[in-house]
Protein: aspartate transaminase
Organism: Hypericibacter adhaerens
Amino acid sequence: MLQLASGMSRLGTESAFEVLARANALAAAGKSIINLGIGQPDFKTPAHIVEAAIKALKDGHHGYTPANGIPQLREAVSADLHRRHGVTVDPAQVVVVPGGKVTMFFAILMFGEPGAEIIYPNPGFPIYESAINFTGAKAVPLPLLEKNGFGFSADDLLSRITDKTRLIIINSPANPTGGVTADAEVEKLVKGLEKWPNVAIMSDEIYSEILYEGRKHLSLLRYEQLRDRLIMLDGWSKTYAMTGWRMGYAVWPGKLAELATRLAINCHSCVNASAQYAGIAALTGPKDDVAKMCKAFDERRRFVVDALNKLPGVSCVDALGAFYVFPNVSKLGMSSKQVETGLLNDAGIATIAGTSFGSHGEGYIRVSYANSLENIAEAMRRFGDWLAQRKAA
Ligand code: PLP
């Protein structure tokens, strides 16, 4: 018998990849599948970004780079953060990694161990809970509620901090709900954290540029008083339709940037060199494609929320960010998983059960509207037919 490390039995997964595999298998077998399960833009990476990577390869950028990212890229990140949030960030505090996920894994590895507690959003991105459990730390869920538009309540979060809490994780705009936390709650959290100076915060702001109805993102970077304990996670995947390039970064406080770099050296050495040049082009080039993408998402968002609310037994609160909605399906008399399976096998619609994002996701499914308006409309028609057939049966 192989003797695996105990952490391996505690490692979770991201079901979106499993649903994608099942959806692809059904499609390969000839079934018509509309994929509303996937968490990535259905747009191509803008051409000038692709060109920059090709140029980098032709120019001979084939070797290792500094482990924390090439200096021009980290300077571009710093300038972009100034443009978007009006903040000054020393490029030395920026560590570029292969995707947003790597920052969360590193942050959780840095703080998690048996005896420690880490607070994370639930429903939330599944890797938070999985990685916390892997380290042996106690994963303390922060329930996100439909009645709050799936934003967090600062009072609730603060009430869960104990002497053992080392890290809190927040994410707005959020996966899987599209929820955006109200500015007043963010302010209240920052004030409340004054009482807990030894608690670090990881703010996952990967959807910060995908916001609707005139909402402006309030980055935690704006709070100088948090700078010595804030890890701000962002990246290229969602904003620039670059999920497969594997490009992410974080602003780390003080010495943690060096520790994150050390983890990078132990793990992946550096990010693909040509992708880093593409990253510079994304941050410094025209933003029209980003604006176009957000406009298309907004149109689909309004359509899908309306269509879901017309389905009997389904209700859906408005989502103000990202490209997900999280309809309530609890009145259908099935578990979230049964709804996910029924929609995929019977109606040919891939969605993700809310429970894939934590126990507080029961009663919901995640619907990604990163698909064409035509496909979304067809999916909603199929969803309606499926409900009618079930009722008739
Ligand atoms: N954070 C959140 C909230 C996400 O939803 C995702 C991806 O779905 C990530 C981070 C990871 O992004 P990446 O693909 O850049 O690793």
